[in-house]
Amino acid sequence: MSKSLEVISVVGARPQFVKLAPIARACEHIGNINHRIVHTGQHYDDNMSKVFFDELEIPEPSINLSIGSSGHAAQTGRMLEQLELLFLKQKPAVVLVYGDTNSTLAASLAASKIHVPVAHIEAGLRSFNRKMPEEINRIATDHCSDRLYVPTLTGMENLRNENLTERSMFSGDVMHDAVKHSIGLAEARQISPIVTQVVTRADYGLLTLHRASNTEPDVLLSLLQSLDVLAQNTLPLVFPVHPRARNIIESSGITLSKSIQLIEPLSYLDMLQTVKNASVVMTDSGGLQKEAAFLGTQCITLRNETEWNETLDCGVNRLTGVDPAKIEHAVHTVADDGYQFDPNAYAELNKAFGDGTAANKIVIDVLEYFG
């Protein structure tokens, strides 16, 4: 029997745990891989971290670096230092990195500088907005990586334009795998009382805000005031509040009506249920744009650009930025259509994001390419 391939997955933030889950399952199913998980501790709150591992049945991390929250440079620097020591000790055949967080960048830099191969899952995404820290992380990680697993054909085109075609493989999107698997888990279990209260409503919109540009105090508070008016007049909103946003809301003393229901961050399975039952999702999250699409819920993206133009092309997502007039127009447009989701969009989404078997394709390629 051939020796198992030594693979380390580095994750640190909530969206990465979701992407990790199908990869971990595929490693176990396909075999011949010794797959270890390293958690940087970028998201350290149990609501943002541990509950994801429990619900998605992801193996416990072998190591948690417990880096915690701080500025970009300090956080990335501490990760770099500890990950380099770890890779030198463990000597993996390949390091898998996911998405576009500081954990992604730190792991790809630390590994590539000591000549440990790197594979980037969810490569090739570009918003073309370099004011986003995630955009810098994506570009740097792709150029450091030895193998690029690309979720969309648009991503393949982006990498072709950067002369990275030879390293690239169209795999489809592991988040499609995750949603297909996890919605069954979500519907089979007893959901939390707060979610039961939410999803039994006739109509509601789901709001999430976490990006730095939207959680600047002036921007956030102005946006919430305009959304409060919209919620009172058109559609009540449920808002699972990111810790950064909650701190600003509480310190500002802003008063919001009961039409915006502020709740704690939801677990992944509870969030899937809430997304599926919502009339519309309003978000600045990249992952949630796709999760809404995969679950048949219209999305309004509170940004001026998206990495997921395929959702725009399929007619299931709209860009508004934080302009109140554009947001209101988008909500009324969706409402005038009865919040309906075009059934033909599902076939288009499968063409754009793959058929939900991306993780198996990636793990098989990892074995062949690095083994």
SSE arrangement:
Layout: E1 5-11, H1 14-30, E2 33-39, H2 50-55, E3 63-64, H3 72-90, E4 94-98, H4 102-113, E5 118-121, H5 133-144, E6 147-150, H6 153-161, E7 168-170, H7 174-188, H8 193-199, E8 205-208, H9 217-233, E9 237-240, H10 243-252, E10 260-263, H11 268-277, E11 280-283, H12 286-294, E12 298-301, H13 309-313, E13 317-319, H14 324-336, H15 344-353, H16 358-370
Helix pairs in contact: 1-7, 1-16, 3-4, 4-5, 7-11, 7-12
Count the domains. 2
Helix/strand/pairing category:
alpha/beta
Shape: globular
Record field, number of beta strands: 13
Unreliable sequence segments: none
Main features:
single chain; 371 residues; alpha/beta; Rossmann fold; 7-stranded parallel sheet; 6-stranded parallel sheet; 16 helices; 13 strands
Q: What would you note in describing this structure?
A:
With 371 residues, the protein is of the alpha/beta class. The chain folds into two domains: 5-172 and 356-370, Rossmann fold, CATH 3.40.50; 193-352, Glycogen Phosphorylase B (Rossmann fold), CATH 3.40.50.2000. It is 50% helix and 15% strand. The chain is built from 16 helices and 13 strands. It has helices at 14-30, 50-55, 72-90, 102-113, 133-144, 153-161, 174-188, 193-199, 217-233, 243-252, 268-277, 286-294, 309-313, 324-336, 344-353, 358-370, and strands spanning 5-11, 33-39, 63-64, 94-98, 118-121, 147-150, 168-170, 205-208, 237-240, 260-263, 280-283, 298-301, 317-319. The strands form two sheets. A seven-stranded parallel β-sheet has the order 3-2-1-4-5-6-7, with helices on both faces. A six-stranded parallel β-sheet has the order 10-9-8-11-12-13, sandwiched between helices. Helix 7 crosses helix 11. The chain is globular, with a radius of gyration of 20 Å. The protein starts with a strand and ends with a helix. The relative contact order is 0.13. The mean pLDDT is 92.
